[in-house]
């Protein structure tokens, strides 16, 4: 799947290859994680996504930015087929992961969601204990068979999510008793406990205070060594801080996909520039 | 030109009068309803509480050989007509079961005749004057008094009021409710889970939904006819049995359980479902591990209320033959049985004055059970109420 390993030169003016970022982040590794080609999505009669092409690279943070209603969250949900839960949604196009079309009839969405985890806008821990929140999914997927194994996995997931030190003495307390930022990290721990390849984050910090937001951003930076992270954000500074690549969505289309540094210093398109400089959005 | 406060106040006066009038009218309506409730309870308590007491007389019981053949001989002629004949009839049986009684004479408190009971309670009684005089004398000697009526709670129906109790009806109610719960709860909850969590939202499911809501409004006697036609006529199940009664009531309770379960499922926020789907739960796992446990208090509340409603139901049970004279506790689910409201209905038709208090007593028991059930539902709802 190594489509492009060599860094490519910037194309400030010319049209880049389909789905490729205009520029490449030189320091990051560039193995392909998810390939999207001509992805269209309709809610009933209205088309929400129009012919998207994008390559998502492994072990990077990719940020999706754009004004409200531009389709970035809808696109994110295409990647683990959460749109299946919404009645009246039609999808056409290719979302390819590991050489398989995730929308194919043969693809089991449960298997897909095990490899593509998700963190939601509002922290939504299960109304169970902190321990159960993390242990539930691995146990359900038969990833652990014995209690000590399960304990180890819970500890590892909570450590990776930077929550272990805060909760190690109160694992049996309800997950909902934690603060908002801690709850969101618990949700991240829950997602990484099943050891997915990709973690989707749908505005993970929009319900949090600035300090919790900074903690989550640091966490995303750490986690990208193990996982491919795709995050939707309304906060441009956040995209600039955490993302290796940034895609700018507008009215259901990807206007520009670029490495973050270039996107924020020297965007290739006028629309992206206007949005980033705050002229609309 | 703006108006002064006085001018505006003058215009407002009429409006204020109107709202005051409405306030008093609604308060009046509330007071009227409260008055009805108080009168109802006072009446029931006044009539029903005496049912929990029963006259007993202290007599010498002579467990002789003769008495085992002719029970009347067991007690002295002077008090023979004051003692319950029903109790006397049980003497030979008692003597057979307890052979050591034979040949002894014991002083015992025994059930008095229903008429003595009514006389002691100050009601009209058919006792002759000389009998009344004898009762008065017994009371003075401390050999006749009102005692707690264990018979009422330990025995089944009887044609003799002093021996009539609610035990067989209460057991019938318990058995019928067990059947109702066993049938209606799983079917109702699974139906609601399917409609709420699995079924696509199309014309067909909308039609089912409308019909279920309509079912809840169907007069209960029609469910009785349905039970009669299907369970008894078609499947040939035994009539008057808790099995048929319970299944008939289950038909009636189903829509209540379905509707309350759907409401409870709907109150579980989608964020929980998304979280569960997000970690790779199948639809069934989402429902079983996350949605159902959170909806359980609501489901329990709805089911208890549905059950309480079924427990007070009489009309459909009349149709399937559960209004019957049942002196003994029904042994199995297919034997003839009766239920509390049906027992009350039966007693209310008895001509004997003594059955009036039995009727009221039965109502008090049924009401206490229903109030207890509804209170449980309220407590459950309060305890597990959750804000998202």
Automatic annotation (TrEMBL), chain A:
InterPro entries: AAA+_ATPase (IPR003593), ABC_transporter-like_ATP-bd (IPR003439), ABC_transporter-like_CS (IPR017871), P-loop_NTPase (IPR027417), PstB-like (IPR005670)
The keyword Oxidoreductase belongs to this UniProt entry's keyword annotation: no
Keywords: ATP-binding, Nucleotide-binding, Phosphate transport, Transport
A GO MF label: ATP binding
UniProt record, GO biological process: phosphate ion transmembrane transport
Location of the ABC transporter domain: 34-276
Gene3D superfamilies xrefs: P-loop containing nucleotide triphosphate hydrolases (3.40.50.300)
One cellular-component annotation, GO: membrane
Stretch list, region Disordered: 1-26
Name the record gives this protein: Phosphate transport system ATP-binding protein
Species, as recorded: Halomonas campaniensis
TrEMBL record, chain B:
GO function terms (MF aspect): phosphate transmembrane transporter activity
GO biological process, one term: phosphate ion transmembrane transport
Keyword Metal-binding: no
Gene3D superfamilies: MetI-like (1.10.3720.10)
Subcellular location as annotated: Cell inner membrane; Cell membrane
Annotated SUPFAM superfamilies: MetI-like
Positions of the ABC transmembrane type-1 domain: 170-376
Transmembrane segments: 21-42, 163-195, 215-237, 243-265, 317-340, 360-380
Membrane topology classification: Multi-pass membrane protein
Top-rank taxon: Bacteria
Presence of the UniProt keyword Transmembrane helix in the record: yes
InterPro entries: DUF3333, MetI-like, MetI-like_sf, Phosphate_PstA
Cellular compartments per GO CC: plasma membrane
Keyword list, A-Z: Cell membrane, Membrane, Transmembrane, Transmembrane helix, Transport
NCBIfam families given in the database record: 3a0107s02c
Family listed: Belongs to the binding-protein-dependent transport system permease family. CysTW subfamily.
Name of the protein described by the UniProt record: Phosphate transport system permease protein PstA
């Amino acid at each position: 799947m190594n489509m492009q390993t060599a860094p490519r030169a910037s194309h400030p003016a010319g049209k880049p290859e389909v789905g490729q970022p205009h520029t490449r982040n030189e320091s990051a590794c560039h193995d392909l994680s998810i390939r999207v080609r001509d992805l269209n999505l309709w809610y009933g009669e209205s088309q929400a996504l129009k012919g998207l092409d994008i390559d998502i690279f492994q072990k990077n943070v990719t940020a999706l930015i754009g004004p409200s209603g531009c389709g970035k969250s809808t696109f994110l949900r295409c990647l683990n087929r959460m749109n299946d839960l919404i009645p009246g949604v039609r999808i056409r196009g290719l979302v390819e992961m590991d050489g398989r079309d995730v929308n194919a009839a043969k693809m089991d969405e449960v298997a897909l969601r095990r490899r593509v985890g998700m963190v939601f806008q509002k922290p939504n821990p299960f109304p169970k204990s902190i321990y159960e929140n993390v242990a539930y999914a691995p146990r359900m997927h038969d990833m652990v068979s014995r209690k000590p194994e399960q304990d180890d996995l819970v500890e590892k997931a909570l450590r990776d999510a930077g929550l272990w030190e805060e909760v190690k003495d109160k694992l049996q307390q309800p997950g909902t008793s934690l603060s908002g930022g801690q709850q969101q990290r618990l949700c991240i721990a829950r997602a990484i406990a099943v050891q997915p390849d990709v973690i989707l984050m749908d505005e993970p910090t929009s319900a949090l205070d600035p300090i919790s937001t900074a903690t989550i951003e640091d966490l995303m930076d750490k986690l990208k060594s193990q996982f491919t992270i795709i995050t939707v954000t309304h906060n441009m500074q956040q995209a600039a801080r955490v993302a290796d690549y940034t895609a700018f969505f507008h009215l259901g289309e990807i206007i520009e996909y670029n490495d973050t540094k270039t996107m924020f210093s020297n965007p290739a398109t006028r629309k992206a520039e206007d949005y980033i400089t705050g002229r609309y959005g | 030109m703006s108006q002064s406060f006085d001018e505006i106040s003058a215009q407002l006066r009429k409006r204020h009068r109107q709202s005051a009038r409405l306030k008093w009218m609604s308060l009046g309506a509330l007071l009227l309803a409260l008055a009805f409730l108080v009168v109802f309870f006072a009446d029931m308590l006044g009539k029903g509480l005496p049912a929990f007491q029963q006259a007993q007389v202290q007599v010498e019981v002579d467990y002789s050989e003769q008495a085992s053949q002719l029970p009347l001989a067991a007690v002295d002629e002077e008090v023979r007509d004051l003692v319950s004949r029903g109790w006397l009839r049980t003497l030979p049986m008692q003597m057979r079961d307890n052979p050591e009684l034979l040949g002894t004479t014991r002083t015992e408190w025994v059930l008095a005749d229903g008429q003595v009971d009514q006389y002691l309670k100050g009601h009209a009684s058919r006792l002759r004057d000389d009998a009344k005089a004898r009762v008065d004398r017994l009371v003075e000697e401390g050999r006749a008094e009102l005692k707690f009526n264990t018979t009422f709670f330990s025995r089944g129906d009887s044609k003799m009021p002093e021996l009539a109790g609610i035990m067989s009806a209460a057991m019938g109610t318990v058995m019928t409710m067990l059947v109702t719960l066993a049938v209606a709860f799983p079917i109702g909850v699974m139906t609601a889970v399917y409609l709420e969590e699995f079924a696509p939202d199309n014309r067909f499911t909308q039609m089912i939904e409308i019909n279920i809501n309509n079912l809840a409004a169907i007069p209960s006697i029609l469910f009785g006819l349905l039970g009669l036609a299907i369970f008894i006529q078609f499947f040939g199940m035994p009539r008057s049995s808790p099995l048929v009664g319970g299944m008939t009531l289950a038909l009636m309770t189903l829509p209540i359980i379905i509707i309350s379960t759907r409401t409870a499922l709907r109150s579980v926020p989608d964020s929980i479902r998304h979280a569960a789907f997000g970690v790779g739960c199948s639809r069934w796992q989402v429902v079983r591990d996350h949605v159902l446990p959170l909806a359980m208090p609501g489901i329990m509340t709805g089911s208890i209320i549905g059950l309480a409603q079924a427990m007070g139901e009489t009309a459909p049970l009349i149709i399937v033959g559960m209004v019957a004279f049942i002196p003994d506790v029904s042994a199995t689910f297919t034997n003839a049985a009766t239920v509390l409201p049906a027992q009350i209905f039966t007693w209310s038709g008895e001509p004997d004055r003594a059955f009036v208090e039995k009727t009221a007593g039965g109502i008090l028991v049924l009401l206490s059970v229903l109030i207890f059930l509804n209170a449980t539902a309220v407590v459950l709802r309060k305890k597990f109420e959750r804000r998202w």
